[in-house]
Amino acid sequence: MFARREKPGLLRRVWLFIFPPGGLKRAWTYVWHRTKRISATPHAIAAGFAAGAFVSCTPFIGFHFILAGILAWFLRGSILASALGTAVGNPLTFPFIWWATYNLGGLILGYDLKSEITIDLPHGFGMMLFTRPGEFFSMFWEAMSPLIMPMLVGSLPIGLPLGAGSYFLVRKAVSEYQERRRARLAARRRQLQGQAAE
């Protein structure tokens, strides 16, 4: 009933993802409020969100939700909160995250970092996934490892403090929100009991 008459094309969907119609501040405010309202303990919500924030620093684009969910499960955190935590990595922050993780990881590994990275893959490389999958993954790793390895190593010293900071910030916010909510519900119950007694 309320669906769009004309579905937006691919470019329009990408544009709306990068620049939400209500603005980025509104989108982030929604994520923040949605996180606080998850039905779980402050620790579970904070641990889940921290897992998502940490994973968003890794170079595994396309697997952030899955990795964040697995990490949240190990930390006994909320898997839903971990999905919301991956919003820390978004089209506006990814360029900074990638630049920082690549350069810091290269510094740690002692790589001679290049300002331009060239990835040489043979013609018909994509079809090798179906015809010769072993060779496909071997060549893919050989071509991408000079980029992925520094980013992976650099994601640890950046993602761990980010995750830890997110944990304490979210836990405090959720605790305060849940306490206020309990107080409001208790006041509402007292009000209803008073009205019933009259």
Runs in which pLDDT lies below 50 for 5 or more consecutive residues are none
Series of H and E elements: HHHHHHHH
Mean pLDDT over the full residue set: 81
Number of domains as seen in the coordinates: 1
Q: Total helix count?
A: 8
Estimate percent helicity. over 70%
The span between the termini is 46 Å
Number of strands: 0
Give a short synopsis of this structure.
The chain has helices at 10-18, 24-36, 42-55, 64-74, 79-85, 94-109, 128-131, 133-197. By secondary structure, the protein is an all-alpha fold.
Can you walk me through this structure?
- There is one protein chain.
- This protein is an all-alpha fold.
- It has one domain.
- 70% of the residues lie in helices and 0% in strands.
- α4 packs across α5.
- The chain is elongated, with a radius of gyration of 22 Å.
- The mean pLDDT is 81.
Structural features:
8 helices, mainly alpha, 198 residues, 0% strand
Compile the SSE list and pairings:
Blueprint: H1 10-18, H2 24-36, H3 42-55, H4 64-74, H5 79-85, H6 94-109, H7 128-131, H8 133-197
Helix pairs in contact: 2-5, 3-4, 3-5, 3-8, 4-5, 6-8
